[in-house]
């Protein structure tokens, strides 16, 4: 069984741990540990808000969620012999919530899904859902249920939302240039177009404290996925998956975090998924010079594991790239997926769900979101598939009409 | 076994058949046949170009493909008692190529995938692939192979690319208004932003010929999916699928066509999929008033069948919403899927495929295209999954480096 | 599309067809057609009783079923160049009921499952079910339902129950010797231990009529599976399957028949499965000398196809090798499977099924029957798995107790 | 996260633990703990030989395996309110090897598969394999590999081999009667027909020591599965499975053990599976009076979980009920499965495996063993399916002939 090379104490804050992680991308953050090709090891991961979200029936914590502090990453872990141009093989041997603990920290037997308020980051459907909502999920084995979203239980598709290698200085500069240029097109937008470097809340691991101001001022925020992998939020990076990351710095410097107990394609509620802390068991190896050999230079490639939850029946909804207001957009797959998700929400409300309950469900359940048609001008066609077996009742359309659930207390809400 | 209510003679043109279909959407096109709720029936379908594409080694026919004539639809089929506001249940009992025929018409034991030239419609990656290409696929049972794309064979995920109910006059007017407004923003664009009504090549079934000019001048083109379903190109509408369409006119007036032997999510090469003619066995039923009861008013919903080809290992590629030129776009899932597909193409070329072979493969193989992350500003993350078992060789990365295929004659090309 | 080299006219008896098949195994039955390695071809198959079983509500025809005449096989088909010692590759490209026909012959849109009376062959649970019963199944696309077994519908796992190569004279002699020896241990048993050669009802294809007496007197009955494959009744020999048969005579001389629309592991009702006539599309090839190269000399090996119906939830029952009377047997997996099936039947009767309805269901539904434990002396443990999705109601145990179906008219019964 | 109510210290023997389990079935063994309906809890389990088998390259320990001491069970656990006639619901929330430990005890990062010598219990193919063999498997996440069986790696189908409720006195008496009667038919057989009570090595938990002699003399051995579940060795009792056990005594008194990292249908090598110690997380509930309500009185029924390893391609072998010596047996499914397994072994040896390596592979890999035909007199047809993806090489037959592995050191052997 792999040795834990990054243990976390659930009773202490992220910054008070024996080994300090980081919440920004920068090549100068030194490795917190070094492993060899072929090594297996365990890493604990803190939930992305470091305990700010509580297991209660209020969404005030979601409304006030400290976005500047995320993500609390474990790492970097250097791999001996890794050089720029290599491919780093990462096998996800296991991943799960915090073992054998109950308590107030997400991952201690429970997790949460949030809808962010528009003024605090928003989400995929923020125009329709401008306020903050929260759902708490209880874990029982690999199954999650919620007092805030009744009538469903799903088998967790557990995965790290964020994993990646350190950028080189040149790559970091490229990120800052292009994202800065985007922000500059509408710098006051709410929510913003992108997140610029921010030094005040930066945590930079073992970097000399005297450098935190300079490095924090240029280090990349961890929200978006980029060439190094990063916050890809790919629900399929589950147990048994092999990922191949490009290496940009000596040692590769792998970091990871943002564990999810379950998530649908898109992580559409933003603080979507079922967020939690926990552990990941990894094994690393190298393909020397693999970036050029396999043409992999800008993004991770991966082979998903073979123990994902199996569902064999799905109810699916489609959407096209016409806005809710009726405006025709040109092959906008982002819009067509929004419309597909809204169609699913409309449908679920007929069974008694509040719209925000349906939205929280789509963010956390193992839904499939597919780019079904991307060439039939002017309409993209996106589709979203919900496994029917996650419902306690028959969710299929019939002449008998929809079953009516008891929506219970509903999902807690907080408005600005 | 269901009666064939729309037989087609493979030796005759679409317009010379005993029963005439149509290639435009309009409420005034009269039903070609009427069925009852609960009825099962067979419908033959012509391949979408009505035989213009040949089983040969030239792409000239793809370059000259007659886009104004598509799609050659079977129908409309009226359902007794269907009224606006109902949901039309359509069970796809079976679907396949033209039974027991060999010959020059796509569907007679073979099909084709095309990459359209930019000047003739283009496709998902038209900037990278401005010329026309073609691949011919031979069918053996439910398996397709191609002399133009060696080293792969896939089990067909056979489905109708296009199926839908007739629009009401009001709905049609809405389409023309919104698509016209889009076209007006850049009327001379190549390829165009959308396709306006076009009367000259319109085929309008049993409508009185004296009306063809007027109706053809306002009837909607069949390329895009819309509220009535239509050309959704959803690969999962396979055998055993139940679809629920909104009903907009008395009788529902269902039409269908554009059969595909196989297709990946997105149908990315435009004349993607493996195009063919063939048959579909359907059973229809009604949920009276179902549009309101289930909140389904703008798009089809569906429950996919349970006999799709099973693959258990996939190699996956991700992409973000940064252009090839390095520009950062804001949560553009269309772009991120393009980048994921380009990453897959780059990878496959390392095994000896020409880029256009890899592109044709992605358009026709049962790939999964997922909207993995849609909220992590500013980068969407899209992912594309290719089943490893479709390759005759080991397509996974390893220290040994990529196997080298014999690319054979390659995919025929035609330039403007 | 493959040429039909063995067409059958549904309106004529098996013996009145243009090409005559056979119902016994013997090396001297001449090939009815010859194909080349690599060839694809279609073969029509007659249902195993040649139309004796009717689509009605009486089981008299099952009680009187003419067992001496089975199976009405299509073939033999010789493969050019095949020699003893080769492996014959048979790809099942497609298989289905009689295309586009409705009528009185099983396979024309319907099929049947029968429980044989003890005095006419019996079945797996003949001690508990000594009388004859019948269930008629209607096909709708790939789905079967029955007026005699309400509350279930299943997607067909369509396959040929019987396929095999011709025995050599030596192999045939071995069969006759060993089966004769078994019969001799209890020659008057009802049902019999095995079936000796029987010349009167033998049909021997194109063999000179003058030889039918001699050859029929030594030709093997087709009921059991043997070294040549034969009546294996393996439900997984479905579309897309590749089978490898040992070759015992020049030309291999492949024959096939006994098509099933669906069947559970064991085909437990004997005239189990959903019996029908139909077609099979095959492609053949050879591995020269493959019997020795791969150590395959006594039985077929195979790679099942990848389009079998997918179910993801099952309810399972176990049984051990203790008789109903309480006697302990030593590792008797046949008995433990009987007990598992009886447990499943007991369970289903609690939902309102008659025992014979439950038995007919188990024989025809795509159940899994597994040898779970074969070493834990003295009890074997066999298990049977029923997909829960085949039921219209929730078949799982709960505190609410079992749902009660309307058993309808029940399954027709006939007693001796 | 569930509380551990039966912790085991890996450095101490089973009999030296804080809480003492048992290795016999008897109603008088008192509960070691009591839980409530709805409770979740963790239970540690000792590997079945309590550490007698070593992680080395000798099979002497297998030859000398102390069969009289097995199985070292955890429990009994009483459930409040459980009464005879109820059904006990047991949800397997999680199951795995000993967390985060490396060491000399099976389950500490490794496990073993053994072939027992005929004189020490034998196994399914003991006539062909009369000597003792061993294979050690190393765990990496959910994947197992072996230095003794090269060329394969499989994803663990982790499950408890043994779980069951306590028998009533009447049920125990029935067991002793019927098994004693069987033994009496051939009391000196090697291996024996069944295992009679044996007091000397009995461990009886918290039962007063003064009673151990009497109770041990009548308590049932744990090797066979029986009406209470017990040593069913059903590979599908994996994570997420819900089992329903009949209740025979107040409190139900559930016990469990014999964890397996992986196993094929049949556990054919006897000490088959990959044996290990570890943990199980359970949740229990009751269906009052459920035995009668659902007709479940003699065996467990269950609904398998949905996270089993997924494989989509299998190579399959068939066997009939003819002995290796050529004798025809009547519908003997046990024999036909033996023959199917021997055919698989013959095949694998052509790739360079020693027969015992192939046998060990079949015992431990997630193979499917099916009762394909049980009515076609006189031959049963059993089939065994091996997932092709577990092999590092292409295991399918082809004209190129079999790949040749390096068999390595081979499997350690020990002869009497």
TrEMBL record, chains A, B, C, D:
Cited InterPro entries: FmdA_AmdA, FormamaseFmdA
Pfam family, one: FmdA_AmdA
EC annotation from Swiss-Prot or TrEMBL: 3.5.1.4
GO molecular function annotations of the record: amidase activity
Keywords for the protein's UniProt record, in alphabetical order: Hydrolase
Record protein name field: Acetamidase
Native source organism of the sequence: Micropruina glycogenica
Lineage of producing organism: Bacteria, Bacillati, Actinomycetota, Actinomycetes, Propionibacteriales
Annotated gene: amdA
